[in-house]
Here is the input.
Amino acid sequence: MTQSFDWTAGYSSRRMPVFGRNVVSTSHPLGAQAGLQTIWRGGNAVDAAIASAAVMALVEPCSNGLGSDAYCILWDGEKLHGLNGSGGSPATWTPDYFARKYGEGQARPPMRGWDSVTVPGAVGAWVALHDRFGKLPFADVLAPAIEIAERGYLCPTVVQGKWAAAAAVPEITRQPGFAEMFLPRGRAPEVGELVTLPGAARMLRAIAETNGAALYGGEIAEAMEAHSRANGGSMTAKDLAGFKAQWVEPIEKTYRGYTVHEIPPNGQGIAALIALGILENFDLKGLSADGVDATHLQIEAMKLAFADTYAHVADLEHMRVTPAQLLDDSYLAEAAKLIDPSRAQRFAARNPVRGGTIYLTAADENGMMVSFIQSNFMGFGSGVCLPEWGLSLQNRGHGFHLDPASPNVVAPGKRPFQTIIPGFLTRDGRPVMSFGVMGGNMQPQGHLQTLVRMIDFDQNPQAACDAPRWRFNAGLDINVEANMAGATVDGLVGRGHEISVINDSYQDFGAGQFIWRMGDPSVEGYVAASDPRRDGYAAVG
Here is the structure.
């Protein structure tokens, strides 16, 4: 163990850290159990992560599905690997395409419908992970999800709330296939009501039998093209056939002797690294973990990081600055000097050039650790569904800009800016923790806040997970959880932050899963933490 944690630290949830030699942690018990059962059947952490991800696509359809995108960082026992499982845009997509269909002056592609759908990458990510690192046959890994899709599951409380909220939004429910697939009784399921997804079972079997080819060049691809053509879209089987998950080198930043790793752009993981690089210039150790001084510095660092991220981050090949330039130590030291410890500020982007998501993590006793995230983007994503295949599609295309001056402007085959970011922590080249936080732009903010609590303030992973969080929105606008200390809230207001106290933690402050390596995995194993904001669950064995 590389960190001396305070095991007595705790917050209102009173959850206890969970210890084990094999661990799968995610936001639904069936997902975590499927992963652990896969390890018990002879699989490894990659098999477990895929099994869990497939189940999560069924039991939290408000957050992810078989048409999601995905990212992964994994430690294979010897080194770190990154996987970008986000898809590109259809070949027809240009600013002119959207101007002709929707008129001039639109800032982004639409939020729902086929013209918000990019090529779904999650299934391709599962295949790529399994082909390279899996142990069990692919069909065996998907078997728990197939059984759940056929036999059904009882709708849980948090999922039902999101499902019911979506059922009241016409722009979602009017999308082709949505009501047939997700509102078969004319309404969202009730809490505890049986949900079955026979179409998803059919798709999972086809994926298992063809190693994913059915989606990217077979009968599912053909069905998607026909559905798109019939409903005003331009996605083709050729667009799908061009997809391949991309193995990438994670980007990194040192922080207090640790190294934090994120997937490189087109994702926003670099925002967490920028903020941590800025905070490296401040001594937080002598401050109170829950006090106004430490909280203010983190908020201001995050604001600076977002300003640069939103201005510069796009599909890596289209960026006009490099991640290395954004993470340069001297550049971040200059950013730190812009922070006034006594006053909140609005920050603009600088130029560094010189001259509706689920997260899961799995680790096994042989030392393999997997940090995995997949997402629809906004709730039920595009709203577009192919019920006969149990396929609901993300709306990542809405992440593009239509302004030609933006590095994130839409173009054929281009990946849009993405919010989903798995995280990984190492020290001296050895694995320490796989982790992630869900929830749009809350994700890098959650990475920052939990890492600071564990590394600077020695809080154990569960305490860092449970602690009250803040969320930066824009300008001076900050949301804080209702259990944040009143003196801290008052202190932030006194420094000029515009504070809203929010009681709906699930909606606004993300939820995370964390697995920290305690030593030799076959002896000491791991400690796992799961977030009460999302009914998090860690299965250990």
